[in-house]
């Protein structure tokens, strides 16, 4: 890092657990983010390990939680209720009821991965050691579950923590993630499977030594020449060797535990088939058969298929059989099979397989080994809607001065067009830029496009500016946009590559043709200009939306001249006169309910204002 041209040496660049982080790793950043942090010595804090900020249930009064958790961000009006409810479901039910009650409030598998990672690397600046600090809690609005996230992993791999038990602090009731989750046999074996995966992938000598050597070589000269180093270059070289020794010794210690050092079944040759054709995507009428070869030197207790729709959320389980009757070839051939029922069209389906050994522990393995965050997927083919009167007519992915929204901002926009002669109610339609999340934005009730008219949606990720402001933006480097009806049938779609600033990507001919990059025709016909001579003067055109109006109206013109835009009431009195801009935002909150007329050149548009 250089400050005013002076070399201050090597500094780490650490990602913050902010909205950018949640956008990258979750479906959205619209959830609630807390940091569990009650520093030792602060008022009301008897010290580390008392569990006050360890997801213990502190009572129904949400104010009791505010002194132990920092609210970093939220879009919820009652965020503390979500934290309290998660703590309640973790701590209050009997252990017999925890497996059925907790998964609706907590992402249990993600929590087990968190604990396995913290334990494997002996993080003494963490939940599992302090019981109250240096981890985050995130409430995911898409699943209504809380999940824990590691933070500040700068105190790992210390010699003093080399021999931490794989079940470190599990007997302490004020550490409920370990004390409660490990006590559920199913989850204990899942935790151990995740721990073995981390040991196998990260503690393998060939892998970790190569990783350490590569990183040391990458920064070696910078450390050597660091003018403000906090430790010597000799210590830097010594620590590289010390880390290799620690990794090897930690692996040996963990594998010396009898529960860790168990071998689960081997799962291979996983595949899915539709109508007996392997790797063929289904329609909404098709069930899907899943097969896997499972072998074990300890016998097989059971094999389970877990499946779920969408990209996040809990899984449903179904036993797999080797009986020749579940799409599994022949009986007793080591190939297990099960069926996933038919799912709705335009739907992603996730699945993974768990196999349990016939030993006393019922040792579990998974395929993929990273389940539930790393899974197999397939897509149920979209059904094309029989009604395609609404089209995606034009998009602009780089708007710097073409069209201004009601907040006075130049944002990305998407134009929908009703090419029929009747009004079309598109309430409940979905529009998305992400085929992993087809219901990303639902158009609000009362959204109607009049005959041969247009509707502008602002892709600015700012719903606070109005109901037609989407929760995503467009990329000028390339993007896709899908429009689906309430039955998730595909109404229209557009995919585009690199765009030109302030140029539209529009259907020509209007409403039906292929997309071309051309001068924008925001809110009106894309056939405005002649392909031979773009200097031909077009007739004056005006478009007004929403109509009926409540709080505001947008008036869009083709600005063919300095024609004024005049608004008059039902008895001909001029309400307002505008001139000099291609489009206008007019606040109608103070207007009386009734009919108004907007005049622009030879055009007259009738609007209704209704509060």
Topology of this structure?
Layout: E1 2-3, E2 6-7, H1 19-25, E3 32-36, H2 63-66, E4 69-73, H3 79-91, H4 98-101, H5 108-120, H6 127-130, E5 135-140, E6 145-150, H7 176-181, H8 185-202, H9 205-224, H10 233-255, E7 266-274, E8 277-278, E9 288-295, E10 300-309, E11 316-320, E12 335-340, E13 347-357, E14 364-367, E15 376-380, E16 390-396, E17 412-418, E18 424-425, E19 430-432, E20 441-442, E21 448-449, E22 454-459, E23 479-484, E24 490-496, E25 504-508, E26 514-518, E27 542-545, E28 552-557, E29 565-569, E30 574-578, E31 583-587, E32 594-600, E33 603-609
Antiparallel strand pairs: 1-2, 3-4, 3-5, 5-6, 7-8, 7-9, 9-12, 10-11, 10-13, 13-14, 13-15, 16-17, 16-25, 17-22, 18-21, 19-20, 19-23, 23-24, 25-26, 27-28, 28-31, 29-30, 29-32, 32-33
Helix pairs in contact: 5-8, 9-10
The chain-level structural class is alpha+beta
For the report, how would you describe the main beta sheet? 5 strands, antiparallel
User: How many helical elements?
Assistant: 10
Pick out the low-confidence regions: 529-538
Number of strands: 33
> What coarse outline follows from CA principal-axis ratios?
globular
pLDDT averaged over residues:
90
Protein described:
The chain has 611 residues and is of the alpha+beta class. The chain folds into four domains: 11-199, no CATH class; 266-380, Sandwich (Immunoglobulin-like), CATH 2.60.40; 383-533, Lamin Tail domain (Immunoglobulin-like); 537-611, Sandwich (Immunoglobulin-like). The protein contains ten helices and 33 strands. Strands 10, 11, 13, 14 and 15 form a five-stranded antiparallel β-sheet that branches. Strands 22-17-16-25-26 form a five-stranded antiparallel β-sheet, with no helix packed on it. A hairpin with a 2-residue loop joins strand 7 (266-274) and strand 8. The two termini are 57 Å apart. The model is unreliable at 529-538 (pLDDT under 50).
């Amino acid at each position: 890092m250089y400050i005013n041209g002076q070399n201050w040496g090597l500094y780490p660049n650490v990602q913050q657990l902010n909205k950018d982080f949640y956008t990258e790793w979750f479906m959205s950043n619209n959830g609630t983010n807390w940091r569990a942090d009650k520093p030792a010595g602060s008022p009301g804090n008897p010290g580390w390990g008392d569990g006050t900020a360890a997801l213990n249930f502190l009572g129904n009064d949400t104010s009791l939680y505010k002194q132990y958790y920092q609210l970093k961000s939220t879009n919820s009006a009652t965020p503390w209720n979500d934290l309290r409810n998660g703590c309640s479901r973790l701590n209050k039910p009997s252990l017999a009821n925890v497996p059925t009650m907790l998964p609706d409030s907590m992402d249990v598998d993600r929590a087990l991965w968190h604990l396995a990672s913290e334990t494997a690397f002996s993080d003494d600046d963490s939940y599992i050691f302090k019981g109250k600090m240096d981890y985050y809690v995130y409430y995911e609005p898409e699943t209504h579950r809380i999940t824990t996230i590691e933070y500040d992993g700068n105190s790992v791999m210390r010699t003093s923590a080399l021999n931490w038990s794989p079940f470190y602090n599990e007997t302490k009731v004020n550490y409920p993630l370990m004390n409660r989750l490990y006590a559920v046999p199913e989850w204990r074996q899942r935790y151990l499977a995740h721990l073995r995966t981390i040991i196998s992938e990260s503690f393998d000598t060939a892998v970790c030594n190569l990783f350490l050597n590569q990183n040391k070589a990458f920064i070696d000269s910078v450390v050597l020449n660091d003018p403000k180093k906090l430790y010597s270059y000799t210590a830097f070289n010594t620590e590289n060797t010390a880390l290799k020794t620690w990794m090897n010794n930690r692996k040996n210690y963990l594998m010396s535990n009898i529960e860790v050092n168990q071998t689960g079944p081997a799962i291979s040759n996983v595949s899915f088939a539709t109508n007996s054709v392997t790797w063929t995507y289904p329609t909404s009428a098709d069930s899907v058969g899943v097969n896997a070869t499972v072998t074990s030197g300890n016998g097989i207790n059971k094999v389970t298929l877990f499946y779920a729709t969408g990209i996040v959320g809990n899984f449903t389980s179904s036993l797999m059989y080797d009986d020749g009757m579940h799409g599994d070839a022949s009986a007793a051939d080591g190939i297990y099979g099960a069926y996933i029922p038919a799912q709705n069209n335009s739907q992603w389906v996730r699945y993974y397989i768990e196999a349990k050994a016939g030993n006393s522990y019922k040792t579990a393995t998974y395929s993929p080994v990273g389940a539930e965050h790393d899974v197999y997927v397939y897509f149920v083919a979209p059904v094309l809607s029989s009604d395609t009167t609404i089209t995606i007519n034009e998009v602009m992915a780089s708007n710097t001065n073409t069209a201004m929204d009601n907040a006075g901002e130049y944002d990305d926009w998407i134009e929908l067009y009703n090419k029929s002669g009747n009004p079309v109610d598109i309430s409940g339609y979905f529009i998305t830029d992400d085929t992993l999340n087809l219901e990303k934005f639902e158009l609000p009730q009362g959204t109607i496009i009049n005959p041969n008219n247009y509707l502008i949606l602002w892709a600015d990720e700012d719903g606070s500016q109005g109901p037609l402001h989407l929760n995503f933006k467009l990329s000028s480097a390339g993007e896709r946009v899908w429009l689906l009806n309430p039955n998730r049938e595909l109404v229209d779609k557009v995919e585009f590559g690199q765009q030109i600033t302030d140029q539209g990507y529009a259907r020509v001919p209007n409403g039906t043709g292929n997309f071309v990059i051309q001068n924008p025709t925001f809110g009106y016909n894309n056939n405005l200009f002649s392909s031979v001579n773009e200097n031909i003067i077009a007739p004056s055109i005006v478009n007004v939306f929403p109509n009926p109006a409540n709080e505001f109206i947008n008036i869009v013109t083709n600005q063919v001249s300095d024609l004024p835009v005049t608004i008059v009431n039902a008895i001909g009195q001029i309400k307002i006169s505008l001139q000099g801009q291609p489009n206008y935002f007019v606040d109608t909150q103070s207007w009386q309910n009734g009919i108004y007329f907007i005049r622009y050149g030879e055009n007259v548009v009738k609007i209704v204002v209704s509060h």
